[in-house]
Amino acid sequence: MVWNGIQHASGPPMVGRHAEREAIGRLLDAVRDGLSGVLVLTGEPGIGKTRLLEYAAAQAAELRVVRLTAVETETGLGFGALHRLLRPFLNRAGRLPGPQRAALDAALGLVSGPPADRYLVGLATLTLLSAAAADQPLLFLLDDAQWLDRESAEALAFTARRLHADSLGLIIAVRDGLADNGLFDALSVHSVTGLPGPEAKVLLSSAPRRMDADVADRIVAGTGGNPLALLELADALAGEQLSGIAPLPDPLPVSRLIEGHFRRLVRALPSETSTLLLLLAAAPSDDTGLIWLAAGRLGLSARAVQPAVRAGILGRDTTTAFRHPLIRSTVYAGAEPGERRRVHAALAAACDAVRDADRRAWHRAEAAEGLDDGVADDLEAASERARSRGGYSQQALFLSRAADFTKVSDKRAERLLDTAQAHLMSGDAPAARTALDVAGADIRGPVMRTRELRMRATVLMFQIAVADVPAMLMDAVTRLGPQDPRLTWELLCEALHAALVAHDCTRGTTLTEVAAATVAARHALDSPVRGRDLLMEGLARRVAEGYERGAPVLRTALDELRSGGGIGDANSPFAVMLLMACDDLWDVEAAREITDRLVAADRDAGALYALSIALLVEARYELLDRRFAEAEVRYAEFDDIVTATGFPGGGDINRLHLFALTGREAGLRAAVRRTAEMRSIGLGLHQLMAQHALASFELGQGHYQQAMEHARAVFEEDPPTCGNLVLPLLIEAGVRTGDRVGAAGALARLEERTPLAGTPWALGTLALGRALMAEGDDAEKFYEESVELLGQGPLGLELARSRLLFGEWLRRRKRRSDARRQLRAAYESFDACGAVPYAERARIELLATGETARRRTEETRFDLTPRERQVASMAASGLTNGEIATRLFVTASTVEFHLNKVFRKLGITSRKQIPRAIGEPGVVTGD
After folding, report:
1. C-alpha to C-alpha distance for 17 and 26, rounded to whole angstroms
2. Residue 690: in which H helix or E strand, if any?
């Protein structure tokens, strides 16, 4: 039910709850001050959550209060609760940005179109409510949140996590013991417990019936101070029990007594009223039109509510609303199955066959008994409508119910497979696995079995447990046979992706076997070749046939992608494969250009999973250009998305190279330990990336033997993502430790591969390797060539490293003046970005030339938080507050809040001053 305005509390005055009232008071003060606040109240039934919501409403007289009570029987109707909540504000929807409006309209079934992305729906909700709060501060009170449909819960949780400076408060009450999928875990959660003894006795004293003091003590102890239990038991127990003459049950069966009390109240009512209560329990209380239409079909009159109001079962202000949510649950659960089916049949008949087709299908299912293909077909049709709105959890629920009513086993299995697919689209991997298990023996034939294996593999990938995925998908390819070459290719590309990530941790097959199968399948593919296909073919050939066969294909793929070739499904983590290809070809320009396109496309589509992976790739190339603060912004946004979506893979494990370059050894070692633990689920590549980071760290420290050991481990495995990048590190470590054989092996590989890549980064790296290995004065020309080539691209870190090594060589040749020039440039580069180990190494070398290197004072811009830095950078590039808000999935008022803090910290007064203050080029569009 949705109410606008304040519903006055009924019953006795609130007792105690000082901590909860203070928390509510702080939230309301924040909203009054133009900020936002979110509070989640959890607790057992009857503990007082609803009463606290009533208290919050009473304290918010100057705010606009909107209250929503979720309904258990509506949990299957995707976006249903959200539609009810937003109904008062939908007149503002026309002002939403285009993609947000399209997503919200599709989700609410207002227009037909492609499925709505759930995160764009969340962003539209955030934008809409924030705009409404700009006119008058808003307080949303959400009761019984455990009964929200998943899509609505996700949109509201997404909104709640992004509230910051929006004059908007949200208080959510959710019952203990009923899973909410952890959607509200990241919010401010307060557990509401029983009243302490003295306060519980005060509440008992407000009951109209007198009781013995010892009996009161027993009731307080037996109920754990649960307010509803206290008051209802005081009303339900016999007078002899309250006076202490007759004994109380020991122990007090609180839940049974309360539910039994409610059932007795209902049974004492006229049969017409009891039936009406069951109808109210099965329908949303705010849809009075539907309720009274169904009541008419059941022969019930409006007068039937009066006995329930007098008995305290229904509210006096809103006679279709139960006094307490537990009464609704008790009424529905206590009804006879036949009576429930009769009520649902009346509701189905009252639903409009077009406007309320989904609700009608659901009530028909609840009214049915036994297998019924007609009901199943209606549910399947409803599932398609849910899919078209982007309501994948709702689609899965409808399909699962359709399968329950399906007579033919093959059709039932097909619907269960579709159920699993819908669960995967909603991000619920455990539910997908359950649907696949239920399908079980009904799955027959190669096509259905292939679908099953592919989805089981996707479940494992979602949980980043990839060890078994390649073999599972290879099995699917075998079962499918030659009948569908495009599907075979897609399966093998997915297998290759998993195998590249698993590296040497695959079970049941090997990376080389998967790559060879992928190459073979490419020959059988007669459909048009896309940039993405070429990239996967290139990676497969790189593994199966060698670098010299894979590199040309990868080059063609990157060229096509840069020229506008399709990048594939925005919801897939294509950026991972792109990173491997670009690193393998030393092509930073292609990497940045294509990744920027990926990030923009993923933001526009609201594809947060794909966006999160693309952000990690962006961070990788920010590090290469000494933009450590910008890299941290990307890492922070990745972590924010992981928190918002529940995707696995967050945390400091992604900051391995940042920790190595900045000398944060404790963080680095902890992240490295985590990569070792992740080998058990098949993430072998992560451990090699950790070895690469350790090699970089040890070189910065001057620990050349340790660096050699870490670099050699990567060299021997030769993974596409860091197998080439480790080569100059191995050469330097080999030269410094006297292992020139090991260094020569790395140089030989460079000499074979860099001409095939042909980029300035590749050729500059080759020149650096030759300089390190050169004898006598021959090294100088190679160092100069390396500095010149690496300076041609966004490779500030590599350029500074080349200058450092060049300066060290010059100093050893007694050319102090020339050495100072290179070392000073290297020191200033490392020091400015925070590459502490390398800056210190350059500083010591510079001191040895006779020049004093002064440590720089930390600049003000590094006091900015990652979010402030991100907002400042976007403002410097010329984006408006609204455009920044859309990109960051926040509100314009939150952007303004962060910009105000940026202005104060940087000591500036205009957006035009931002680029200079943060050390970035930029174009701003106003003050």
Report:
1. 14
2. helix 684-701
- Give backbone dihedrals phi and psi of 281, rounded to 5 degrees, phi first: -70, -25
Let me know: does 46 contact 177? Beta carbons within 8 Å.
no
DSSP conformational letter for 314: B
- Residues whose CB is less than 8 angstroms from the CB of residue 33 and which lie 6 or more positions away in sequence, other chains included: none
Residue 715 to residue 551: CA distance in whole angstroms? 18
Phi, psi at residue 58, to the nearest 5°?
-65, -30
Which DSSP letter does residue 7 get?
A: P
Cβ-proximal residues to 579 (8 Å cutoff; 6+ apart), any chain: 591, 617, 620, 721
Q: Are 325 and 44 in contact (CB under 8 A)?
A: no
Residue type, 668: L
| pLDDT (tens digit per residue) in 695-728 | 999 999 999 999 999 999 999 999 998 999 999 9
Token pair, residue 454, equals: 């592919």
Please state, in angstroms and rounded to a whole number, the distance separating the CA atoms of residues 732 and 80: 62
CA distance 145 to 174: 5
Q: How many CA atoms lie within 13 A of 207 on its CB side?
A: 24
In the chain, the amino acid numbered 308 is A
**Pairing between β-strand 64-69 and β-strand 138-143 as defined by DSSP bridges:** parallel
CA gap 170, 186 in Å, rounded: 14
The per-residue pLDDT for range 908-926, each reduced to its tens digit, is: 888 888 888 877 655 555 5
Q: Could you tell me which residues come within 8 angstroms of residue 6 by beta carbon, excluding any fewer than 6 positions away?
A: 57, 58, 60, 61, 65
CA distance 768 to 372: 74
Buried/exposed 693-719: b ≥16 CB within 10 Å, e otherwise:
bbbbbbbbbebbebbbbbbbbbbebbb
Terminal-to-terminal C-alpha distance of the chain: 45
- Cα dist from 492 to 497, 515, 551, 600, 757, whole Å: 8, 8, 20, 28, 26
**Tokens representing 888?**
């960051």
HSE-CB at 482 with a 13 A cutoff on CA atoms is: 4
Q: For 914, list phi and psi in degrees, rounded to 5.
A: -65, -50
For 266, the token pair is 């209902």
Q: What is the 3-state secondary structure (H, E, C) of 598-642?
A: HHHHHHHHCCHHHHHHHHHHHHHHHHHCCCHHHHHHHHHHHHHHH
Whether the pTM exceeds 0.85: the reply is no
Q: From CA 567, how far away is CA 177, in angstroms rounded?
A: 44
CA 548/CA 563 separation, integer angstroms: 24
Distance CA 516, CA 287 (A): 61
Q: Strand 189-191 vs strand 168-175: parallel, antiparallel, or unpaired?
A: unpaired
C-alpha span between 626 and 796 (Å, rounded): 6
Distance of CA 914 to the CA centre of its chain: 31
Nearest C-alpha neighbor of 294 from the set 342, 248, 246: 342
In sequence order, the β-bridge partners of residue 36 are 168
Using CA atoms, how far apart are residues 82 and 128, in angstroms rounded to an integer? 12
Q: Label residue 213 by pLDDT band (50, 70, 90).
A: confident
Tell me how far apart the alpha carbons of residues 338 and 390 are, in angstroms, rounded to a whole number: 34
pLDDT value of position 390: 78
Helix (H, G, I), strand (E, B) or coil at 803: helix
Place of tokens 């391995």: 656
What does the pLDDT average to over 49-55? 92
β 2-4/36-43 pair status: unpaired
Note the pLDDT of residue 250.
65
Burial 4-33 (b: 16+ CB within 10 A, else e): eebbeeeeeebbbbeebeebbeebbebbee
Q: Is the dihedral of CA 411, 417, 423, 429 positive or negative?
A: positive
Q: Which amino acid is at 796?
A: G
Beta strand 64-69 with 2-4 is: antiparallel
Q: What is the pLDDT of residues 214-246, one digit of tens each?
A: 888 888 888 888 888 888 888 777 787 888 787
For 436, the token pair is 């696949």
pLDDT, tens only, 516-537: 999 999 887 777 678 889 999 9
